[in-house]
Amino acid sequence: MLHLAAAVDLADTYDPAPYLELARLAEHGALDFVSLRDTFAAPGPDALAVLSGIAPATSRIGLVPTVTTTHTEPFHVQAAVATLDWVSRGRAGWRPDVSPGDDEVRLFGRRDTAAPPADLWHEAGEVAEVAKRLWDSWEDDAEIRDVATGRFIDRDKLHYVDFEGRTFSVRGPSIVPRPPQGRPVVVVDATQPYAYDVAARHADVALVGVGDPDRLAAARTGLRRRATEHGRDPDELRVFGALRIDLGGGEHAAQPGHGGGPLPTDEGPLYRGGPVDLADLIADWHRTGAADGFHLTPLDPRRDLERLVNGTVPLLQHRGLFRTFYPGATLREHLGLARPVSQYAAAPGARS
């Protein structure tokens, strides 16, 4: 089944109401998740806080904020993402990113200069790894909540993670109980060269911003192969084509639209046309196996997301390619991903 997600980025917007409006619109279209970009390089609201605030006002849509791993404490990052999973009742994801600029370094004052991109992404991969271990550090049944005895936790079911990375170490366990999904969904932009291996090793969803279906299919094949080399089941990795969309051109494709494929731009491939032609493009690329789904970033968030949900999505539903309702409640269920077992849980019968 085809997967669809959309960005709800709004420039210079601090009021949470417009973000909630867009998230509800995406939920009306049964999209897998919405993402919200964040960066230390420019002013803007904290994406994780915004989505945590609107989580109780939505019921099914997945919520994926960008979380910068540079200059931040991994223990705090995982606790915040786990909290988002709790307040959304199992609909959280997160999109690790890095801060490569000296301006961001000066904001924090913890380093003298920016580290090379390869080092920053290596650190991001280690943050993803330690987050997974910390989420697993509470077994699912670690909470007792026995009022009569006053016991809240079974301490035998809490675990030290004892992680040693290049730039940080974490003992654990987490201070937040295991999230409803076990592990919130990890989304990585694999278009960036240094992020490719992080995506193959850690991502549940990898985004690839290329404007050609053959190149996208090759990227999907390569990511799945690399995931296998890291000991993963490649079927646990979803690869999404990442496109910016401008649906202001009416029902038919503008220059060049579906017929010539998306336009290459400095910010990634840009589709410019109408909802009908976008449905054709998505259907054709998905049918050839180029991608498991698509992550779409509207140029005009309100206009383009509405045309996507009310125009493109019904056409894909009519063709039997996209769901008409959510069959489950969690983001992992939307994506067809199993809930992972804690790596620290003892095998059945192993405890006396």
Can you give me a brief rundown of this structure?
The chain has 352 residues and is of the alpha/beta class. It contains eleven helices and 13 strands.
Plain-language structure description:
With 352 residues, the protein is an alpha/beta fold. Helices cover 36% and strands 17% of the residues. It contains eleven helices and 13 strands. It has helices spanning 16-28, 47-54, 74-87, 102-108, 117-136, 196-202, 213-229, 257-260, 275-287, 301-318, 331-335; strands spanning 3-7, 33-36, 62-68, 93-97, 143-146, 151-153, 163-164, 169-170, 185-189, 205-208, 238-246, 270-272, 293-298. A hairpin with a 4-residue loop joins strand 7 and strand 8. Helix 1 (16-28) packs across helix 2 and helix 5 packs parallel to helix 6. It is globular. The relative contact order is 0.15.
Question: What's the arrangement of secondary structure elements?
Answer:
Layout lengths: L2 E5 L8 H13 L4 E4 L10 H8 L7 E7 L5 H14 L5 E5 L4 H7 L8 H20 L6 E4 L4 E3 L9 E2 L4 E2 L14 E5 L6 H7 L2 E4 L4 H17 L8 E9 L10 H4 L9 E3 L2 H13 L5 E6 L2 H18 L12 H5 L17
Parallel strand pairs: 1-2, 1-13, 2-3, 3-4, 4-9, 9-10, 10-11, 11-12, 11-13
Antiparallel strand pairs: 5-6, 7-8
Helix pairs in contact: 1-2, 1-10, 3-5, 5-6, 6-7, 9-10
